[in-house]
Specification:
By secondary structure, this protein is α+β, with helices and mostly antiparallel strands. The protein is 34% helix and 19% strand.
Length: 192
């Protein structure tokens, strides 16, 4: 197996692409021709920000990808898991970091089949991505797709540093991640 056949990609669509303050070992810059995935601003995350996650039944957008500095998919998963959630346990990584591994034939996470087909077309040996559920925080609300109006109302209700961080996340998301909720947020709050 040569080096080209062992490339492992990381797919991104939000702060993973623009926030260098939390290190993720990569061998390349972000490329704009990642798989088309149904991602949306639909998860309340730390600091009450609304972040992008894979959501069923939402329009697809072209994501981004980079080559991970990892020798295997397990290492790439750990690296992404620690970047996304610094105290990540192996159990957290197992559920919240999606993957596809050409050599084992195994995969896990939302859109795994779509991502596998894309990866095969790029000659990749593996792919990792963030696989967090949509919804507002709280066990009963995780996994439930919030309506766009509820997302806007949540963002409108933020103040101070929380609001500034939430606005920064929306504004800095790559331009190609042009989702229906992003358009609604821009229209209602002027965050474009």
């Amino acid at each position: 197996m040569n080096k080209e056949e062992n490339r492992i990609a990381c797919i991104g669509w939000g702060s993973l692409v623009w926030d260098d303050s939390r290190d993720l070992p990569l061998l390349s810059g972000w490329r704009e021709n990642g798989p088309s995935l149904p991602v949306e601003f639909a998860r309340e995350s730390g600091g009450s920000r609304i972040t992008l996650v894979i959501c069923k039944d939402t329009p697809r957008v072209q994501t981004l990808w980079a080559i991970a500095e990892a020798v295997d998919v397990a290492t790439a998963r750990r690296q992404l898991g620690v970047r996304e959630h610094p105290p990540a346990s192996p159990e957290w990584i197992e559920t919240e970091i999606g993957y596809w591994d050409k050599w084992s034939g195994k995969s896990h996470g939302g859109e795994a089949e779509t991502i596998a087909a894309w990866a095969e077309s790029k000659g990749l040996a593996g792919v990792v991505w963030t696989n967090l559920p949509c919804g507002f925080s709280g066990k009963a609300r995780r996994g439930i797709m919030p309506p766009g109006e509820a997302i806007v109302a949540h963002l409108r209700g933020l103040a101070g540093e929380e609001r500034a961080e939430a606005e920064k996340y929306v504004r800095r998301a790559p331009a190609q991640i042009d989702t229906p909720y992003r358009k609604l947020i821009a229209e209602q709050l002027g965050w474009d």
